[in-house]
Design a protein that fits this description.
Largest sheet: none
Mean pLDDT: 83
Oligomer: single chain
Strand content: under 5%
Distance between the termini: 22 Å
Helix content: 25-40%
Radius of gyration: 13 Å
Length: 81
């Protein structure tokens, strides 16, 4: 998660700046996102993962380089799960 989402909780081998992510199946049925439910917007959830030390930084940058239509296709796919 990096520093931006660090919660200070250790869960198994996931330290204070890491989180064991739930499977994506059913993500389209969720009302809130992130481990603490702080957003109801998938795009905001994606953006929130970018911070110093986050393993997601490279993926987020790749997502942002996509055309708007391609980004929307990914969001629509996630909502279909």
């Amino acid at each position: 998660m990096g520093e931006g989402l660090a919660d200070g909780i250790t869960q198994g081998s996931a330290g204070p700046d890491a989180f064991r992510t739930a499977p994506l199946w059913g993500v389209g049925q969720r009302v809130f996102f992130l481990h603490d439910g702080r957003t109801s917007n998938l795009r905001e959830a994606i953006d929130a993962h970018q911070s110093r030390g986050s393993e997601a930084n490279r993926i987020i940058e790749r997502f942002r380089r996509l055309r708007v239509e391609e980004q929307q296709d990914i969001l629509n796919f996630l909502r279909s799960l």
